[in-house]
Amino acid sequence: MRITHLPTGLVVTCQDEKSQIKNRAKAMRVLRTRLYDLAQAERDAELKATRRSMVGSGDRSEKIRTYNFRSRG
To answer: What does the alpha-carbon distance between residue 16 and residue 34 come to, in Å, rounded to a whole number?
Structure first.
């Protein structure tokens, strides 16, 4: 059994069982899992890029400087 997901071009083949119905069900499970993993990876990459853009490089110019002035007295 070969199943192709047309929007992504992802191809899954399965010939583990004798029954074509069981092979189709197993191939669909594998395809669903791969599509979920692909979507999860895209979300993780997007989140990582967002976080990276929020965090600065840590240069001296970005740091908050505090000055301790001597008090008179």
So the answer is: 18
DSSP 8-class letter at 53: H
Model pLDDT, residue 64? 78
- In terms of C-beta distances under 8 Å and separation of at least 24 residues, what long-range contacts does 12-20 make, across chains too? none
pLDDT in tens, 16-73: 989 999 999 999 999 999 999 999 999 999 999 998 888 777 777 777 778 888 877 6
HSE-CB of 50 using CA atoms within 13 angstroms: 6
Task: Collapse the DSSP code of 36 into the 3-class scheme (helix H, G, I; strand E, B; otherwise coil) and give the result.
Answer: helix
Instruction: Supply the Cα-derived Rg of the chain in whole angstroms.
Output: 27
Token code pair at residue 59: 């240069």
Dist. CA 1–CA 23, nearest whole Å:
6
